[in-house]
Amino acid sequence: MFNLKRSLPVARLFVLALILTLFAAMAPGFGVVRAATVTVDSSAELMNALASAKPGDRIVLASGITFSGQFKATASGTASAPITLESADPSNKAVLKGNGTGSGYALQITGDYWNIRNVKVTNAQKGIMLDHANHNLLDAVEVYQIVDEGVHFRDGSSYNTLQNSYIHDTGKGQPGFGEGVYVGSDKGKWSTINPASDYNRVVNNTIGPNVTAEHIDIKEGSTGTVVSGNIFDGRGMTGDNYADSFIDVKGNDVTISSNVGYRNGNEVIADAFQVHQQVSGWGLNADFNGNTLYLDNASCYVVNAASGTSARAHNNIRSPKGNMYRGNVTQY
Ligand SMILES: [Ca+2]
Ligand SMILES: [Ca+2]
Known about the structure:
Blueprint (H helix, E strand, L loop, with lengths): L3 H23 L10 E4 L2 H9 L6 E4 L4 E3 L2 E3 L9 E5 L6 E4 L7 E5 L4 E4 L1 E6 L1 E6 L5 E3 L2 E5 L4 E4 L6 E3 L2 E2 L13 E3 L17 E3 L2 E2 L8 E3 L7 E3 L2 E3 L11 E5 L5 E3 L2 E3 L8 E5 L10 E4 L2 E3 L6 E5 L5 E4 L2 E3 L5 E2 L2 E3 L1
Parallel strand pairs: 1-2, 2-5, 3-6, 4-7, 5-8, 6-9, 7-10, 8-11, 9-12, 10-13, 11-14, 12-15, 13-16, 14-17, 15-18, 16-19, 17-20, 18-21, 19-22, 20-23, 21-24, 22-25, 23-26, 24-27, 25-28, 26-29, 27-30, 28-31, 29-32
One calcium ion (CA) binds next to loops.
């Protein structure tokens, strides 16, 4: 028979446990995320949304709007609850327009676990800058009309991915500093900037035309960059500041695979890929495999590995035939 007197304390305990669980779920750090979606249609609203973003939030950029300013993603998502910034309509991407080409970044990311999709970035000294930012995804972005480099992984920014994107018309002010994508920092900046921007991935992008320096410059002090499935269009590279190859490798353990490069008659392009030693112990173990290079000058090398560097090469195709490998390049 049901004993009301005996079951009451049990029921009280159950209710108490339920209340405690609810309180715990609302407490910060418990891991329960209550994400919000906010649609913004002005620069001020976007600034506010970025500043107050929480893990799991989704910031939607209204269609047909140009957002002007210098935007900063300083909050962090988590592995299971990234923060998303994207256009409402992928076929009509919103524009993040910097404060002019004189200075600053159109978008700076200093947080972790952002997914940034389907946005255009333009009209700034540098397009998208990542500083000590990790595990971020840049997907289907277009970066153009930039004074210096388009996208830069800097100051200990690791495990980020740039994919399915279009980078063109960079280096409008300083051709020698107009890289499409820049990984790490020159040794001259190491006293103030952490050079270890490691394990970043640059995949399935179109880079060029009118990228005035290297399409991708991978700096000494960085490790494990993956460059795969990209298309390089050599038109508009200037040769300034030794920018005379699609990719310059100065970091270690870089993988460059399944890319397609077109020299397109640009006589300043001396090689498809170069490996350089800027600092002893760097410029080592680059792997080049499965790339297809349309180098319309027989003297250009597919891989030119300078003194002190090491590389491996496998199954790269050059059309038309001409120089393939120079320096310490092991074929396998
Ligand atoms: Ca460069
Ligand atoms: Ca060069």
